[in-house]
Fold this sequence. Notes:
Largest sheet of chain A: 6 strands, antiparallel
Helix content of chain B: over 70%
Strand content of chain B: under 5%
Oligomer: heterodimer
Mean pLDDT of chain B: 91
Shape of chain B: elongated
Structural class of chain B: mainly alpha
Amino acid sequence: MSLSTAPGLQRPKRWDSPFSEDITDADVQRLLRLAPFKDMRPENFPRNASLAEILRNDGRLKLYKDGEIIVRQGDYGTSAFMVLSGSAEVVLHPDLPPSVVGRREPSRRGIFRAIAQLWSNAKEDEMERARNRRGAGEEDRSVFLQDIPVLLNRHKTATIHAGSFFGEIAALSRMPRTSTIFARGPSTELLEVRWQGLRDLMRNDSRVREYIDGIYRERALSTYLAEIPFMKYLSEDAKQQVMAATQFETYGDYDWSGEYKKLAQAGTAAIGKEQVVATEGDYPNSVVMIRAGFARMTQRVGDGHRTLNYLGSGRTYGFEEIAHNWRKPENPVPLQYSLRVLGYTHVLVIPAAVIEQVVLPAIPAGQLPPLIETDSQDTSAPFALPEMPQDGETAPRVNADLMEFLTQNRFFNGTETMVIDMDRCTRCDDCVRACASTHDNNPRFLRAGPTHDNIMVAQACMHCADPVCMVGCPTGAIHRDAFEGEVVINPATCIGCTTCATNCPYEAIRMVEQRATDGEILVASDFKPILKATKCDLCIDQYGGPACERACPHDALKRMNLNTLDELVGWLQR
Amino acid sequence: MRHRLALRRAVLVTLLVAASAAAAWKFGQVRLLYPRLAYLTGWILLGLMLLLTLYNSRKKLPFLPLLSSRLWLQAHAYVGLFTAVVFLLHLNGRAPSGWFEGVLAWLFVSVTASGIFGWWISRVLPKRMTTAGGEVLFERIPIVRRDLRLQAEALALKAIPEARATTLADFYTREVSAFFAEPQGFWSSLAGSRRRLTALLGSLAETKRYLTAAEISSADRLAELIRQKDAVDFQRSAQLVLKGWLFVHIPLTYGLLIFSLVHVMLVHAFAGGAR
Lengths: 574, 275
């Protein structure tokens, strides 16, 4: 093995690739004279990440013209905005159609570039790439809304004035943008801050933290509540009553990756360490809606707890019991299951009184959940295995042990989990070779991982609903693709700090040595090899989707969304 | 439970049988009318063989939008079986004459048979491997085997000072060390024979009567390691077969293609004599 130790080859650092090359010292000084930055205390910031440096490297100034779209609903974004001058308009409802906001498929390789890979692919593994990932930065293309007066007539909007922040929900929660926002007036100047910078501002200044936290809660609530099915039966007035009574509750810290990994690795011991939102047998005093993260629904069996289902974003708990008690007050039931959360889980809590007084009377009788049969389950028997709960919209059923396997290993977080049917897999490794052929001769996953019965979940990036790997990235190299939300790494801005690889509970990110074009391993001035994080990018720029899945000759490998069980159940019964 | 897969297989088998029956019926109708029908069946046969070899090319081009490998393999398997039917029609009940035709026919039969064998083991062995447990990546098997051996040796050595006796260590040296040293019988492992495992565990159980309490605990752990090594041996044999059959199927295919092309040239070079 040969090494390349070019003199002066420096290890990449956080701000080697600033958010913008155009921001000047004068711009930074101007920002420091504006609220809220002028009120921040520079001594609260560490020396290696001062307030000025955060603004200089994690911020950029952008001018928008009248009608120019700043953020689009549904896109993934990793930055927040502050209006410096002018104003922005947020579209509340109804949503703008995708064609109006210019949403389109991300560009993939053309057919000729796909064929050209036959001879253009690097011969050496992991050649150093200075360029950005293909497609990175395409979100910068401007899209203008047409006929704004008509649009303002048809859609309810709200104005965001100078000094206000927006976009922080998507940036901080790593979820899609909840609204489309466009510039109003001849010139709107915005400060865009990468989420890493926003995080540092919040971390080092309590007022910013409280301010962002406040608007985050205020703006998110109406959007989130709208996802609960029963909300559609309510009048505007009733919705306002529900909103007024709803409380946010957060379990765990935002930077929860370490705890999450610890719990994931704790296996069956973890259940005792999980925080309990509601306990089986207690009086049902609220409906809980999961907003971010996951919770598991468990039922007591003997001296332990069996997982019956897991609830992800948008799923509710406790409604059936409250509805039963409202209809049959003479025969009330307690909570049928316990609800336990892991790491960072964000829930909305609607008190039972509001549900009984405002929500239930508005729901048509035929749409109410069925009454709970109180004597159908005898959980006092030491080994009584409870029935899997019906889901309402879908009623997937998987083996109880498989459910426990998925939950214990937190696989429900994956939206593109690589699941392999080991009864059909011939261990030919065609999937591994296909991955290597499409990714610098180095496969981005391991065909190994936790196995239950004939189901293996391979060590491949699952493109999590809430990607913990992104939490600590200092440069934003690991980010969500703006269109589909795949979690991808930009090799040009990855500094090889290993934070993402350490955070990932699924061992799906690998640090690899970079090579020069002559095949020699690149070594920094400290005589250690230069590393970059690599992981599955779901063949985002290839034709036809993930090469691994297309390369499997035996229909054994499938990328699937495990946020709900529907896809898995369909695949198991294929 | 696997409704869709079963339905798909039933449809494809039905199509194969229907296509084969139609080809045989049509061949029977026209074979007396066209004396040069062997040329037609020959060219069809060559075309089908070339089509079948495209699958290997597809596997080497995963970045091109060329349909999924699953569809290609299904087409490869069913077209391959249909090709065997066309081969029989091409022979037209005549046995190959001469060494060249003999080798050509042998190559065709070998390629077809190895393909069917590969298909069969790819359906049978994965389930057995999953059931057997001890799943390990093929490349890591020597490492796992070495780890098991080191653990077993450490157990045997540890028992000496603990028990102040060498009974277990002697037993290990005499009966078990060879078992951990290298993979055990390929075919017996593949066949799932438990003879060697049962014999070793039986000997160990017999030896237990001479062991101290400290040694018995090590002996129990040693029995577990023996079971793990046995499972790894089976995984190795199974994965060797699953990977190895292609090293028969593909070279034979190249040989078949070369012989077939020469056969075509010879046939056309001496076409006058065939009239």
